[in-house]
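In this section we walk through a basic example: taking a raw amino acid sequence and producing a predicted 3D structure, encoded as discrete structure tokens. The instruction is simple. Fold the sequence below.
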Amino acid sequence: MTNADVEYIERATLAAVAPAAVDEVEGWLIPFDTGVVGRAKSAVPLRHDVSPRAPVIEIERRYASKGLPALFRIAEVNALDGTRDELLQLGYGKHKPTLVQIAAAQAAAGAFSGPAAEISALADDEWASVFLGEGFDPVEGASRVQTLRRAKGSLFARVRGEDGQTAAAGVLSLAHGWASIHGMRTAQSQRGRGHATRVVSTLAAVALDKGFEWIVLQVEAGNTTAQRLYARCGFTTAWSYAYWIKGLNK
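The resulting token sequence is shown next.
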């Protein structure tokens, strides 16, 4: 990945999760938000090849000025060793390791040969219902839906089950030269039926039709089931990161 790729992916990520506000300082993006989506409220560097002294104290100050705790999203690359060491010394610890994965849109679009998922420019309550269903935290789900709904220009995919209800859903954002997939969710009773593959394939086809050749998504390192799905769609890991939260190393 080039420096430009990293920067565009990080900017595209924030375009998709649409934090309430974003600052930028010394090559870092500082998004501010109160929801549950970590990407919408964690400071992140825009390059991975060099490690100038990270503006950690300034970033903490900016979060404090808005009454928010500082949260950092740091790639597991050698150039950022100094930043991680500084965070450790300040009492931060790692949380929720996550993989950033990319795929050629054409390959992902060909992963499912059946009917396409439904696509809409609106995330109606029927689409959102899968985030609030049995087995999911309704408060977390409602917050996540609110975050995904407020991004400009996103497209929302849905697959219906035999009962006509939303069985699986996902979101496509197109920004900064990258198509990005977010909000992948399948109802617990509908898993193992290919619905998620259908969503990813459809979103990739839409991205390709709109001239986007590459797709990026993020998946927790512990979610091996989702990783197998994404591998079938042609995704490979570009880099990994972890969130850094104060107090976790105590």
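Looking at the output, two observations stand out. The mean pLDDT is 94. The chain has two domains: 3-98+241-246, 103-239. In the next section we compare this with other chains.
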